[in-house]
Amino acid sequence: MRSDPAVLFLMKLSPFARTIIVTSGAVLIHLSLGTYHTFGNMLPYMASFMKNFTDSSISEEKLIWIPNFQGCFPFAMVIGGSLNSRTNARVAAFVGCFFMTLGTLLTFWTIQMSFSLFLITYGIMFGLGQGMAYVITMSVAINWARDHIGLISGIVAAGFGISSSVFTPIQTLLINPMNYKPTKSGYFTEKELTSRVPSVFYILAIIYTFMQLLGLLVICDPPDVSSSADDQRSDDNNNDDDIIPPGLAKAADNRSMKTIDVTYGETFIDDDIFLAFAFSACSFLNAVARIGWGFLVDRIGFQVEVVCIRIILLFYLVCLAFATFLATLLLISMPLASFGGKWMYFIWMCSMFICMACTHASFITATIRCFGTKNKSLNYGFLILSTTYITAT
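^ that's the sequence the OP posted. Answer follows.
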């Protein structure tokens, strides 16, 4: 560990500077990982291209399988956590970044060949790499700032959340700079537009490579990554408590909801530029909310920590319950957004994204508070995996 040049360099700096540098590297990687949330923006373009050039039977409904397979994200987090415990963080994170970027690059060809190959590269490979890199880089950033777990995890998660604000306009401008309107069936027929779709994956792969390699330079654990105090706390706590009840866990599995939100908007809004703007603005608010929730968790969580582990759990449950309740109301009222036009839809989307941000800051903080820092990547991966299982059942 101490022979790592990055560690040697960081240890010469102040604790604040170390935290800033490592967190910035993690955020940079998460900016690339977060393009998962741009699937809703890319969906009509990908469906239109494949329908015209690859397979005439392709529909948007069929392509929804792609984010479902990208949902191997939680399984990949468990794999990433296990890999991180067997090797150093940079190598483990590199493996995840490599799978994700390679999957994106290969999609340049597979989208022109068949749906099955497209599913493997942009679904399974992308999701596997994304999940592995996500949990490892998050864990590393937390290791350098253990007194501010909620805030740091919120900042890193904000990089993941704000990614769509950065990449959605880029995708739209690359593919549809003239703002062509889709047909009534929701597809684009202009060959000038559809012919640009494959090249976007090639461009994105290049951008991902640059961002991830730069971020990986500072992805490393501090020399004192193992904390006997935290391990002792993990042993002392009553670990058979549930961190979150099934109802909240089910609501927390919101990865596919963002795709549904955008797809729903396309049913009554024919302005592609506006949809890109709306999704970018909502993602920005989601990112800011993640930092806010993380700051709140740190401020209140530490004050009650000395009282009882059950009070800590209660605090997280209150936060999650409040956010989940609001998100549920917004979800139920989703059909009403069409009556208010595109700006009503915009307000609804912003509110939904802010509510969903709570889980990203609260989950990993609750995991560490309950079980300590040892194996936190693996524990967090199992927690997120549980939300997928509950949703499936």
